[in-house]
Design goal:
single chain, alpha/beta, 8-stranded parallel β-barrel, two-stranded antiparallel sheet, EC 4.1.1.23
């Protein structure tokens, strides 16, 4: 089964929530850190959350910067978490936002689609051009890997470049159209292809147009949770509650901090928040 069809099935079964394992030592309760190295503490924290949420989310996203910041110890935790997800037949996104060309891009592809840091999907920054995307095609062609390419992000600085006018419309549409053309070569049985887009849910005036224009592309949707994107925006970026995954990181990871007994029930409260996230967005279906 192609990886994009597997993701589609996961969303159909478990819902569209993507849990961001952007784990920091600061997020981990003292009782879970005692006597552990940095790598052991990060991995045990991630494992607790995975074990309690695997049936209420579609996929897990690891922002590599959180692990790189702890050096070798952090990258051991990154490796071990990805290995654990593969062992459990769970899907993963390596949020690495790579952007380079030629041989360097090929090495990035090898680094994150093979070996210690292997993931099912990775994020890419396309702003060096199509030759920064094409080196990943040899993996995409096989059907078992996919990418999410930055399109319309939710950060305030997105206005600096993404929305600059080009031929009468915003620049990001030019990027999306190029990715759509490439994606058409690899459409799966689900009707979607493995070249997805990162589309923030904070721009209410654009979401319907983006969803319609890129109807065969899966979306990775940030902005909900800590960035307070409107749930209706998120709903409009989905397609029948599928066609995208909605990332939430800190709101889920740190939910235990909102409860007196939270330090003893980290996974339980992560699960609770993941379910609440799904239900809040799904509620727009009846509006």
């Amino acid at each position: 089964m192609k990886i994009i069809d597997k993701l589609y099935e996961k969303v159909s079964k478990n819902g569209f929530v993507c849990i961001g394992l952007d784990s920091s030592i600061d997020y981990i309760p003292e009782n879970m850190k005692a006597g552990k190295s940095v790598s052991e503490a990060l991995f045990s924290y991630n494992k607790e959350i995975i074990d309690q949420t695997y049936d209420v989310c579609a996929i897990y996203k690891l922002q590599i910067a959180y692990y790189e910041s702890y050096g070798i110890e952090g990258m051991i935790a990154y490796r071990d978490t990805l290995s654990y997800l593969r062992e459990k037949d769970l899907l993963s996104i390596g949020d690495v936002k790579r952007s380079d060309i030629a041989a360097s891009a090929k090495m990035y592809a090898k680094a994150h689609f093979e070996g210690d840091f292997e993931t099912d999907f990775i994020t890419l920054n396309p702003y060096m051009g199509m030759d920064s995307i094409e080196p990943y095609e040899e993996y995409i062609e096989k059907g078992d890997k996919g990418v999410f390419v930055l399109l319309r992000t939710s950060n305030p600085g997105a206005k600096d470049f993404e929305v600059l006018p080009v031929d009468g419309e915003e620049f990001f549409y030019k990027v999306g159209d190029k990715m759509r053309e490439l994606n058409e070569k690899y459409i799966g049985k689900s009707g979607f292809g493995p070249i997805g887009l990162v589309v923030g849910a904070t721009h209410s005036e654009e979401v319907e147009k983006i969803r319609k224009r890129y109807d065969k592309m899966f979306f990775l949707i940030p902005g909900f949770g800590a960035q307070k994107a409107d749930s209706m925006n998120v709903y409009k970026l989905l397609e029948g509650l599928n066609g995208g995954v909605v990332n939430s990181s800190r709101a889920i990871l740190k939910n235990w901090q909102n409860y007196e007994d939270g330090s003893e029930k980290v996974g339980y409260y992560a699960r609770k928040k993941a379910i609440e996230t799904y239900e809040e967005i799904k509620a727009n279906e009846v509006l």
